[in-house]
From TrEMBL:
Residues 247-407 form the VPS9 domain. This is VPS9 domain-containing protein. GO terms for cellular component: early endosome; late endosome; plasma membrane; transport vesicle; tubular endosome. One of its GO terms (molecular function) is guanyl-nucleotide exchange factor activity. One of its GO terms (biological process) is early endosome to late endosome transport. It comes from Microctonus hyperodae (Parasitoid wasp). InterPro entries: UPF0507/Ank_repeat_27, VPS9, VPS9_dom_sf.
C-alpha cells in the first residue's frame, strides 16, 4: 500500500465524513485508528460496528495491548513488532489459534490539544468475519459498458450510490444551485457546468481504491454519466434559452422545409444523383426522433447515426444491384460500389438535405448549437466535428435552394407511382437496374404477388 493512499482510502474518507463524530472522539482521546488497505475493503459496507472494531483504546494494565471500542463484542489485540495479533474476543482467549494483521505504516498526528494520536495502516481487516463478506468491487460495477443515454448514466450512478460513494439526492440538490440565466454566454455557462462535473468527479473518485481510480474505463464512465446527469437536470432551462436565441433561424429553416414538402420534392431535385435517389427510410426515421432526445450526447448520437444510416442504405442498395448483375464490367455502378467506403461529400450533402426535409426536425439549428457548446465527453475519434460540419454544410446548402427554380424530377424518382407505372418496373431486366430501380422493382413484385393471390382467392370463391 502506498503511503499517499490513505488520502483516498474508502474507510478513512467515510470515517471522516459519515462517522465524523466517532473520528473526532478518537482524535480527542488519542485512540488508535486502524485503517485496512484499500484492496481489503473492496465491496464492504462500512457500518458503525465496523468503525468501532477498527478504533482501539489502550489497556493501561497490559502494555502493548489494545481493546476495540465495540461495546457489544469487544476484542483485545496485542501489538508485536510489525504485527497486530487478535488474542481475545468476548472474554475468551483464542491463543494459539491467532489472527495476525501486518502493520504497513504508522501515521502520527496532533489533535487540538497538541497530543499525539496514531493512525495505523494495516494489510487487512481486524477480524475474519469481514473477510468473508468481501466481494470484489469489479463484480458490482461493470466497466465494459457504454453510457449513451440518461437511463445508462442513471443506472451507473445508482450502482455507485449503492456502494455509498455518492448520493443522487445530493447531486441533484447541488445542481439546483446553478441558474443558467445568471451567465452571459454559452461559454461561461459551459465552464461552470464543467467545473461542477470535475469537482464531483474528483470527490467520487477519492472514495474508490487506486485500482479503480486508475482504470480508464471507470474514469470515462463516471465523467460521461455526470455530464449526462447534469445536462438532463438542466435541459429545460438551457434549451429554452438557446431556443429563444435561435428561434428565428429555426423558423426560417422550417419554412424552407415546409415549402419543399408542399412541392413533394424528390431526392434528385435536391442534387442527389439519379442512381442514388432512393428513399432512405431508416435514416429519415432516425432523424425524426431528434426532437424527442434531450441531452446533447443523445442528440449527437442521433445525428451521427443518421449519417451512418445514409451511407449504409446507399451501400446496401449498391451491393444489392451488384449481386443481380451478371457482367460487372458493363455496369457503371460497379466503380461507385468499389469506392463507396466513404461517400464523397458532394454526394452525401444532397442525400442529407433530403433526409432533413423528409424528417422535418423542428429545432435543428438549436440542436447543433446545443451539442457544440454542451457536449464534452466525446473523444476526437467519435466524429463530433465531422458531424457538426456536415450538418451545417447541409443546412447552408438547403437554405440556398431556390424553391421557385427547382430542376425537373426524373421520371424514375417519384414520391408516389401509379399502379401502371409500378407494374412497368416488373418488366425491367435486373442487369440494368440502379438502386432506385431495384427499390421500386421490389415494390412492384410484391404488388404483383398480392394481386395474383387476390385473383386466386376470387376464383376459388366463385368455384
Amino acid at each position: 500500500m502506498e503511503v499517499d493512499e490513505i488520502m483516498f482510502n474508502p474507510f478513512y474518507l467515510v470515517l471522516r465524513e459519515k462517522f465524523k463524530a466517532k473520528y473526532d472522539v478518537a482524535l480527542s482521546k488519542c485512540l488508535t485508528i486502524c485503517i485496512p488497505c484499500t484492496d481489503s475493503l473492496r465491496g464492504l459496507n462500512i457500518t458503525d460496528e465496523f468503525v468501532d472494531d477498527h478504533i482501539l483504546k489502550p489497556l493501561s494494565r497490559l502494555p502493548y495491548h489494545y481493546e476495540s471500542t465495540n461495546l457489544k463484542n469487544p476484542r483485545i489485540f496485542k501489538f508485536e513488532d510489525d504485527y497486530i495479533r487478535l488474542i481475545q474476543q468476548n472474554g475468551e482467549f483464542i491463543y494459539p489459534k491467532s489472527y495476525k494483521i501486518k502493520i504497513l505504516n504508522i501515521e502520527r498526528g496532533y489533535n487540538k490539544d497538541f497530543k499525539i494520536y496514531n493512525i495505523v495502516i494495516v494489510d487487512k481487516l481486524l477480524h475474519e468475519k469481514y473477510v468473508n463478506l468481501q466481494k470484489p468491487i469489479e463484480n458490482k460495477i461493470k466497466l465494459n459498458r457504454i453510457i449513451a443515454s440518461y437511463k445508462d448514466a442513471l443506472n451507473f450512478l445508482q450502482e455507485i450510490a449503492t456502494l455509498e460513494r455518492c448520493s443522487l439526492i445530493e447531486l441533484a440538490a447541488n445542481i439546483k444551485t446553478i441558474d443558467p440565466n445568471n451567465y452571459e454566454s454559452s461559454n461561461d455557462l459551459g465552464d461552470a457546468l464543467q467545473e461542477w462535473i470535475r469537482r464531483n468527479w474528483a470527490q467520487i473518485m477519492r472514495k474508490f481504491n487506486l485500482d479503480i481510480q486508475r482504470d480508464g474505463r471507470f474514469q470515462k464512465l463516471l465523467s460521461t454519466s455526470l455530464e449526462i446527469f447534469i445536462m438532463h437536470e438542466l435541459h429545460d432551462k438551457i434549451y429554452s434559452l438557446l431556443n429563444n436565441a435561435l428561434d428565428e433561424d429555426d423558423l426560417n429553416l422550417k419554412k424552407k422545409i415546409d415549402e419543399l414538402i408542399g412541392l413533394r420534392v424528390t431526392p434528385d431535385q435536391l442534387g442527389v444523383k439519379e442512381a442514388l435517389a432512393i428513399s432512405l427510410p431508416c435514416a429519415i426515421v432516425e432523424l425524426a426522433t431528434l426532437d424527442a432526445r434531450h441531452d446533447p450526447l443523445e442528440k449527437f448520437t442521433c445525428l451521427k447515426s443518421t449519417l451512418d444510416l445514409i451511407i449504409a442504405e446507399i451501400k446496401g442498395a449498391l451491393a444489392d444491384v451488384e449481386t443481380k448483375i451478371e457482367s460487372y464490367e458493363e455496369n457503371d455502378l460497379i466503380e461507385m460500389r468499389n469506392t463507396i467506403k466513404i461517400i464523397p461529400t458532394d454526394d452525401l450533402i444532397p442525400l442529407l438535405i433530403y433526409v432533413i426535409v423528409k424528417s422535418r426536425p423542428r429545432r435543428l439549428i438549436t440542436d447543433l448549437h446545443y451539442i457544440q457548446n454542451f457536449l464534452w465527453s466525446v473523444s476526437p475519434y467519435d466524429g463530433l466535428s465531422y458531424t457538426i460540419v456536415t450538418y451545417k454544410t447541409a443546412i447552408t446548402a438547403l437554405q440556398k435552394i431556390a424553391v421557385d427554380n427547382l430542376p425537373s424530377r426524373s421520371h424514375k424518382v417519384k414520391n408516389d407511382l401509379s399502379i401502371n407505372e409500378i407494374l412497368d418496373f416488373v418488366k425491367l431486366p435486373e442487369s440494368t437496374a440502379t438502386p432506385i430501380d431495384r427499390q421500386v422493382h421490389e415494390l412492384a413484385m410484391m404488388l404483383k404477388e398480392c394481386t395474383k393471390n387476390d385473383a386466386v382467392s376470387n376464383f376459388k370463391s366463385h368455384v
